[in-house]
Amino acid sequence: MNLESPKVTVEKSSQELFDLLSDVKNFEKLMPDNIAKFEVIGEDAFIFGLKGMPEIKLKMKEKTAPNKIVLGAASDKLPFSLVANIDTVSENSSAVKLDFEGEFNAMMAMMVKGPISKFIETLAANMTKL
């Protein structure tokens, strides 16, 4: 299952945005209002929980400065990745798009598609808060 957020323009250089997204603590600012838990559990990992959903542990998997950051599920039970693709727009602005890729059975995919789509759209929209 592949989902994409809308592309969002942020008034920061691509390197500056890359540096902010490289620090997992900054993901708390991107979370939706219905967050029930956010906890940094290491330099490159955090756990978050949304109301009514199980907690998810994300780990930094790959960083390619200044254009790409890949977060992945720390558990193999639900394998997925969240990729931030950063494009330079100008010296002081960049565009970011989030791509979600997950391997779910048809039933699970049907259940999580709506909430995950809304979640990544919120993360992208909140990029301006960084």
UniProtKB/TrEMBL annotation:
Q: Which Gene3D superfamilies match?
A: 3.30.530.20
Name by which UniProt lists this protein: Carbon monoxide dehydrogenase subunit G
